[in-house]
Amino acid sequence: MIKRKLEELFFKILMILATIVVVGSFFLIVGTIFVKGIPFMNLDMITKTPGGGFYIGKEGGVLNAIIGSLYIAGGATVLGLVISIPVAFFINLYMKGRRITSDIIRLAFDVLFGIPSIVYGAFGFLIMVYFGIRASLLGGIIAVTLLIIPVLVRTLDEVIRTVPGELRDAALSLGATRWETAKVVLRQIKPGIYTAILLAFGRGIGDVASVLFTAGFSDNIPTSLHEPAATLPLAIFFQLGSPVEEVQGRAYASALILTILVLIITVLSEVMIKKFSKHKI
Amino acid sequence: MRFLKDKIISKLMLVFTLASVSLIVVIGVGLYYRSIPILHQSSWHNLLTKSDWKPLKGLFGFYPFIMGTLWVTGIAIIIALPLCVLTSFYLVEYAHPKIKQILIPFVNLLSGIPPVIFGVWGVLFIVPFIQSSIAPHFVEFSTGYSVLAGGIVLAIMIFPLIVSILNEVLTTIPQELKDASLALGTTKWETIKKVIIRKAAPGIVAAAVLAISRAFGETIAVLMVCGNNAVVPHSVFDPGYPLPALIANNYGEMLSIPLYDSALMFAALLLFIIILLFNILSRIILTRLERNLTA
Question: Which of A19, A212, B99, B262 is deepest in the core (most CB within 10 A)?
């Protein structure tokens, strides 16, 4: 009996330790970034573009990369939504009764979700070569859109599935067409859509491998779709590789900026999910 | 008029859906098409088993990169899987609902952290730690930039994925099963060991496969801490050069050396095929499991 109790205790402690490691790793990472980043943080970092000699430690900031990232992630999210909302509705409202087909479509999006961003980057590069687009804001947006479509579709699909079937049936029985029903459902899932947007935006803003080939890099803020655009993750990566201490410090500060941005986005989306499940009928 | 609108919209949606689903095929075909030149010059077998990597001489052997990928992925899953299984058991079976409510959001936050931040953290924390605290006990010298560093960083990156899948799997296991076992006088751990693990086994396998395929394709974080040396690693303290890192590091010069771009696209194709198969496999296991448990 004692042996069994001891075994129970041993494994319980082991589980708690494992949980501490898993959850603790989050604090360790964010903590490290804050501790290293804060000393190098200043207003110039977020208000100025790189000045002359920025990469040997002279003045300037990473505003170009911040704006570039926002442009790319924002553009991709909008483009992604335009494609994903119809797809999510199609799977749920129009494919009713054809379960195998909709299951296959869902599987396809699960698989697309699993494809790494470097493959999307390489594929985006192929598209650009094919159409003769050079590394630019547009190229970056295309690659990131491909990357986040599965994120959007999966999230929206899950959200739409939580809408009770009665609501749909009630709309349909009043003589509404499927499209009109979709509009009813759309109103119901609004908070869910915000969640999907935040998740997709967060994924898009933090990704490097997809924009590496496609967006290029530039010290200026892009003014048109055909200009190359810097992105924050790429700026971090480049600066960290520098032998100059000042520049490395800026990489830490840039990492801090990105971390804060992404944390805000993730926390917001968590809150949205909570809110959504509260208002669910 | 309304019906016409409905019809048109329906067709439009169908087109969007088909287009995005066929993306899988298009990516595969596109990458294959660009790999044809290198496949003409050399065979699949040669590309995968030769270890000479001299693009300027036209020698493309992917063996060191494949081994690099396998090493970091292997280390990552060995570290992550036991930790995550234990964590999920704790969260689902033991933890007070309130504690669970506090802890799970942090796991989600971890999944939101961008890869490049993991890389920076790896460079700042793990690499020096390995160099000064772990490696000296085992080998004479290591810079810390090693497959071990890559494995640890990757392990943390796949924590949230494994934990969230396992949480879902564990919560779908019927409460009656657990109650029946507990009513027979078993301790909670014995119930986990004898009942839950058996029921959840396919789910654990699926989570592991999915995590492996995620780790396979991870690029930037691994690139930053792995050392990127095109030789086959022989110990965890050796540097490695995984496939995604190879693609990311060389895109700049790939258009100036003949066949180089084709070789890199072949690398992307390899990743794509492996990850595609792994993903399909694990998703099928998961769907089956869900159906069996809820039916």
Answer: A212
Q: Are B268 and A119 in contact (CB under 8 A)?
A: yes
Interchain CB distance below 8 Å, A206 and B117: yes
Q: How far is B252 from chain A, CA to nearest CA, in Å? A: 8
- Give the pLDDT score at B113: 92
Same domain, A6 and A53: no
Of A176 and A36, the one with more pLDDT: A36
Domain boundaries, position B65 = 44-294
Contact (CB<8Å) B20/A87: yes
Number of folded domains that form chain B: 1
Residue B154 to chain A, least CA–CA distance (Å):
12
Whether residue A157 sits in one domain with residue A248: yes
* Domain CATH for A109: 1.10.3720.10
Looking at chain A from residue 120 to 139, which residues have their Cβ under 8 Å from any Cβ of chain B? 120-123, 125-127
Model confidence at A259: pLDDT above 90: yes
Residues of chain A contacting B118 with CB distance shorter than 8 Å = 29
User: In this structure, what are the phi and psi dihedrals at residue A224, rounded to the nearest 5 degrees?
Assistant: -145, 165
Interface of B with A in 129-158 (CB under 8 A): 156
Give the mean pLDDT of B145-172: 92
A47/B contact by beta carbon, under 8 A: no
